[in-house]
Please model this.
Amino acid sequence: MKTIQFVESTLRDGHQSLWATRMRTAHMLPVAPLLDRAGFRAIELMGTVHFDACLRYLREDPWERIRLLNEATPVTPLRALIRSRSLTSFNIVPDAVIELWIQRCAANGIEQLMIFDALHDWNNLATSVAVAKKAGIKVMVPLVYSLSPVHTDGFYRQKTADMISLLDPDIVMIKDSIGLLTPERIQTLVPTIKQQIGGRSLEMHSHCTTGLAPLCCLDSVKLGVDTIYTCASPLANGPSHPSTENMIMNLNRLGYRTEIDLEAVKAVSDHFRYVAGRENQPLGVPAEYDAFQYVHQVPGGMISNLSFMLSQRKMAHRLEEVLDEISIIREEWGYPVMITPFSQIVGTQAVLNVLTGERYKTTTEEGARYVLGHYGQTPAPVDENVLDRITRTPEGRKFLNWVQPQPSITELRKEIGRPGISDDELLLRILFPEEHIEATLAAGPIPVSYPRGDKPVMALIQELTARHDFSLVSVQKKGFSLTIRK
Model:
């Protein structure tokens, strides 16, 4: 009987998908020991977008978050992900910054890194993978799933073989960030990839955007996948991952071992259900099937951003027109996978095309750099007419012969002009707006106290004793009485 392993993604992808990346460190810490003893292969904690959210919205030092969670989970490895050459934004950053970023991940407690390139241009990852391995980090490289005339089983077969040859990752993943996989495609895709990876572990990461991810995960296990990504049930489903509880139940019924402490998982779910209610955050619910998802391939969170952008211009009624335009641009641009940063770059261009009434009348710097190949080799050639139109824009002319500057860390440190700051702070100042750094530093250490939602009586007592408008708390139930005087 085969044992199937789990990567726990509530602290990373769950709240990124459902809570706009607004989970605070204090929400995580009370149940970190439960996650640590539950038997997960890894706890996925950070993507580069979480660094931005920590600074911009939560005023938390993201490096401190990693250190706190690392201390709270001494047994289970913490996992993070980084995006190719763009790292934290849509801009391409110098190699020295990426190298230092990986080194600081290792120093702060990250033991595993998912390093991905949505174009599957493995040359973009060669340095990152080498630096991570030298730092003692276990590396997993994903094959990002997409639908197009280019993204065939043959495409993934060749990309897998090339990845193994050039990068030699420890683990290979299928990353279905948009939730496009179907049980039928699983039957051919998983064996195709499995044949190329030798004895390496194969992981399945699929979102429930179309409601098919739980079934796809189960079918992939039957075909040789060793590990699946799940979230605690309050932050599962919708645009998030399948729930851990549901996958354990179904895998056990199919005859697989899971070796996950289900009671610990249920306690974690109780806690986050409590957090959701206390913080007015939504709970994940199964998504209805939407065939249009397979046409525009836009992630669920980005659709809400597009709708908001159009609403500000009193054009919310044109959302479907923008989504149709996205599918056209994607074909013209050589079928980029619709995940960050390319989903945003394509989506912005679609909005510009629709709102100006003239396709490619204007573009963005990121759009120009994409079609000119600065992000890497596109899956298929960019349409020549589109390339010509974009290169005639100011942005296109600016980047026509652009070469990525490669300053050293020493040079960047001089440019920042703050002698004596740590490497961690230096990286934040290089990559994020100064006002967010200053506000975060002014906020002081991350608050760590928060009630345990899986222990409602203790949570109630904590909530009551934190108030200052009374002097006595009394809790009574059959056979139990507690009085606290303040």
